[in-house]
Write a structure and sequence with these properties.
The longest helix has 11 residues. The protein has a single domain, classed as Immunoglobulin-like, CATH 2.60.40.10. It has one helix and eight strands. Helices cover 9% and strands 38% of the residues. Strand 2 and strand 3 form a beta hairpin. The chain has 125 residues and is mainly beta.
Length: 125
């Protein structure tokens, strides 16, 4: 009975996280020679978090070099921010995931808090 009540409470409360679109981004040639770019949108549903870190990974979850206006972006509660990710064409085939990780304020690190990571899988042709 306890488990059923716990499950009902859990389902009644929406899970708070952030969203990133598109789910399967595609890279296109940028205005810079030898560089490809994709644009993503980040929507913040977390009232307790305003900053998100951008990372790019290969299929084995190793970090890859990339460029963006900033690797740490501010997204206020219930707001959307668009950002570009630039990759060298020579490493483009290695890119599998573009992820954002919520960065918790220092005041929250002394209590239990959950960081959320959202990843988009790069569309391969």
């Amino acid at each position: 009975m306890k488990y059923i009540i716990f499950l009902l409470i859990l389902l009644a409360n929406p899970l708070l996280a952030h969203e990133m679109t598109p789910t399967y981004p595609e890279f296109k040639n940028s205005y810079l020679e030898g560089i490809s770019v994709t644009t993503l949108s980040l929507f913040n549903r977390r009232i307790d978090v305003n900053y998100y870190q951008i990372d790019v990974y290969d299929k084995d979850w190793n970090r890859l070099p990339f460029a963006s206006k900033s690797r740490l972006i501010r997204v206020n509660y219930l707001k959307i921010v668009n950002f570009d990710v630039y990759i060298k064409n020579e490493t483009l085939d290695d890119v599998y995931y573009i992820c954002t990780l919520s960065k918790l304020p220092v005041s929250m690190t002394d209590r239990t808090a959950v960081a959320s990571r959202i990843c988009s899988k790069v569309k391969k042709e």
